[in-house]
Amino acid sequence: MPETVQLFVTCLIDSFFPQIGEAMVHVLNRAGVRVDFPSAQTCCGQPAFNAGLRSEARPLAEHTIRVFEETTGAILIPSGSCAAMLRHGYLELFKDDLAWRERAGALAKRVYEFSEYLVDVLNFMDLGARWSGKLTYHPSCHLLRGLGVDRQPRLLLGAVREAEIVELPEREDCCGFGGVFSVEHPELSAEFLKRKIANLEKTESPTLVVADTGCLMHIQGGLKRLGKNQRVVHIAEVLNSR
User: Fold this and answer.
1) What is the dihedral angle through the alpha carbons of 122, 128, 132, 133, rounded to the nearest 10 degrees?
2) Which residue among 45, 51, 153, 202 has the highest number of C-beta atoms inside a 10 angstrom radius?
3) SS3 call for 167
4) Separation between Cα atoms, residue 215 and residue 92, nearest integer Å
5) For the chain, which domains are there?
């Protein structure tokens, strides 16, 4: 009987990049995992939470907890930021409410970022992916610092056939998205993005790999505005390539 996991797809993937969710499901199916999708899911509340709007974030968090309490198995998220919200943000949001904090804690124990689950739980590194050419990897802030996930996506990319992995200079620097940061501090965000794109160009890689769709949207938008030819892809899309 295949193991069953729950997909929390995130707002950006649901609205703008459904192909990433589809790629994630294909990869998990190849790894012998069955994927369920609770259709009642919605925003996890992270944008409001990060903006300091705790009362607005709380109903969304409560709804998310209720939806996934009706399911079993690990909850997989193709985004370090949303995974960090469910794993850590909810505990902070409900720190003064014992009943909800316990429910949030039970949910947090089931939450995994996509690459984290493949490597740490399934012990999969080589998924038979093939990508001809150079790849460079940008670790998103929430994934790297919020979840401590860095080894896992690197192992997965290192096993991709025909791919040449090139180190991104100043790779740990923020791309400038930061959710509401890019809205509240657009000038700083633009400078961070400019530096990230300059470092991408130093690698001479035509493809930047990310594991968070916010970074993908932000960097790809910057590249397009500058008329650059590089593209940004989610790691699930690379792992789904054959």
Assistant:
1) 20
2) 153
3) coil
4) 24
5) 3-119 (3.40.50), 126-239 (3.40.50)
